[in-house]
């Protein structure tokens, strides 16, 4: 049996009209310091976004979510200097409070023996 590992996660939210503070969950970012693990899973809920704002630019949001994911995963081909940082710094930067279209929930703790399974479970419960 694998050892349980402490991880932190945040729900990635899309806020199509920031002034209204309505959002749709679009993904999970998960970090485990002990395992030096960061993962990000995203699902763009275009129809739900259009319910909040019929004029939302889904392709613009999709491009920004792709950039978010590249930064989270430390993609070396990314032009973002944040993507070049270590895993804890990337996680903290991405989950910092901000008032933009892509936001994260507060950071929550969890325990799991299998981190890839944990992020899939969180995606199923909170996003899909």
How are the elements arranged and paired?
Elements: E1 5-14, E2 24-32, E3 37-42, H1 46-52, H2 58-73, H3 87-95, E4 102-104, E5 108-112, H4 115-126
Antiparallel strand pairs: 1-2, 1-4, 1-5, 2-3
Helix pairs in contact: 2-3
Quick structural summary:
With 128 residues, the chain is an alpha+beta fold. It has helices spanning 46-52, 58-73, 87-95, 115-126; strands spanning 5-14, 24-32, 37-42, 102-104, 108-112. Strands 1, 2, 3, 4 and 5 form a five-stranded antiparallel sheet that branches.
Over the alpha carbons, how many angstroms does the gyration radius reach? Answer: 15 Å
* Form type: globular
Average pLDDT: 95
- The counted number of beta strands is 5
Question: Percent of residues in helical segments?
Answer: 25-40%
Given the structure, what is the number of helices?
A: 4
Order of helices and strands: EEEHHHEEH
Q: Alpha-carbon distance between the termini?
A: 29 Å
- How would a crystallographer describe the biggest sheet? 5 strands, antiparallel
Q: What structural class do the secondary elements suggest?
A: alpha+beta
Low-pLDDT runs of 5+ residues are none
**Residue share in β-strands:** 25-35%
């Amino acid at each position: 049996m694998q050892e349980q590992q402490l991880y932190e996660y945040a729900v990635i939210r899309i806020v199509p009209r920031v002034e209204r503070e309505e959002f749709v969950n679009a993904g999970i970012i998960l970090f485990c310091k002990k395992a030096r693990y960061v993962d990000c899973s995203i699902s763009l809920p275009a129809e739900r976004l259009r319910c909040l704002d019929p004029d939302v630019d889904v392709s613009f949001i999709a491009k920004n979510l792709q950039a978010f994911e590249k930064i989270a995963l430390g993609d070396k081909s990314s032009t973002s200097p944040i993507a070049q940082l270590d895993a804890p710094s990337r996680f903290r930067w991405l989950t910092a409070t901000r008032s933009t279209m892509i936001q994260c929930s507060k950071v929550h703790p969890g325990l799991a023996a299998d981190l890839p399974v944990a992020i899939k479970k969180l995606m199923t419960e909170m996003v899909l």
